[in-house]
Amino acid sequence: MAIFLISLAVFVGVVCVVVAISYVMGDIKDESKTEERLRSLTGMNDDSEHGSITKEAINDSLTGIRGTFRKLGSRFTGLSLLLEQADAPIRNDMFIPISLISAAIGLFIAIVGRAPAPLYPVAALVFGIMPLIWIMMRRRKRFKMFAQQLPDALELVARALRSGHSLASGLHVVIEEMPDPISTEFNKSYEEQNLGVSMEEALKNMLKRMPNLDLKFFVTAVAIQRTAGGDMAEILDKIGYIIRERFKILGQVQALTGEGRISGIVLMALPVALFIAVYYLNPDYVMLLFTDENGRKMIAGAAFLQVLGAVAIKKIVAIKV
Q: What local confidence, expressed as pLDDT, does residue 117 receive?
């Protein structure tokens, strides 16, 4: 069994290395095509030492691998939006190979660490979802920073409107004066409306990328003001004031529920830590959970109760403001 798993890990690792090389070679090939077009336009194209058959065959095969993963990644429609929301430095077609490489690393670590054979798939699964967890954490951090910057951005837009500027000019002020991520998102909307998209549609696209309730108030206020009129600067000032008051209440809630969050983390991590410690102290004692029928039932029940407890603690602690 161990030999089979080691062979499987080596196979997955080799496949992932080939895929990584294909992405590097594909990028180089794309750059070479661009340079070749520039040389042809300037009359400096030299076809004398081009066209190695072996090189072209390798590039075509690697391009086929990249295309396969690109098609596979395109089937997950929410993945591209997730990567865009997290502002991740990886492309949609690179996410699946990276996850496979992480799963192979997890399987290799489990084998080297002499973990029980039933835990090999668990280790591969845990390491395989690490890239997704990293993307989700990056996305959550970016959402949090955007929410903190939004009151100041609305205040800048309100000042620009009072100075006689248009709403588009107000967005441009936010782009120049404020840091990422809010400057990046406002810049996308600003460029969209410069290219002919209506302001309401550009702001709705930003709301899709950053699903924030306060931003939804801003987008709705802009749509109503464009239809019915009104003092947009005063509306933005009131929205900013409401956001800051919500942050104050949210800070108080976070302070009051800190003990519950720490208790939840300890209660979730303690059984796993005890299992690992007892396994390395007395492996035969722990292996009964995998070899005996009642032990397997106990593991399944414990896992279910762990998930149920985590959901219950999160429901108690997570208070919406």
A: 76
- Residues 112, 106: Cα–Cα separation, whole Å: 10
The candidate with the shortest Cα–Cα distance to 310, out of 255, 268, 276, 249, is 268
- SS3 letters for 92-157? HHHHHHHHHHHHHHHHHHHHHCCCCHHHHHHHHHHHHCHHHHHHHHHHHHHHHHHHHHHHHHHHHH
Indicate whether 75 pLDDT > 70.
no
Nearest by Cα to 232 from 163, 318, 306: 163
pLDDT digits 0-9 by tens, 2-48: 555 555 556 666 656 655 555 555 544 444 555 555 555 555 554 44
Instruction: Centre a 10 Å sphere on the Cβ of residue 129 and count the other Cβ atoms it contains.
Output: 15
Q: Which residue has the tokens 């942050």?
A: 247
Report the distance separating Cα 92 and Cα 22, nearest Å.
15
Q: What are phi and psi of 90, to 5 degrees?
A: -115, 155
What pLDDT shows up at residue 287? 83
Residue 195: how many CB atoms within 10 A of its CB? 8
Length of the chain, please? 321
Average pLDDT over residues 267-296: 85
Tokens encoding 316: 């108690």
Rounded Cα distance, 320 and 312, in Å: 15
Instruction: Map out the domains of the chain with their CATH numbers.
Output: 2-128 (no CATH), 143-255 (1.20.81), 257-317 (no CATH)
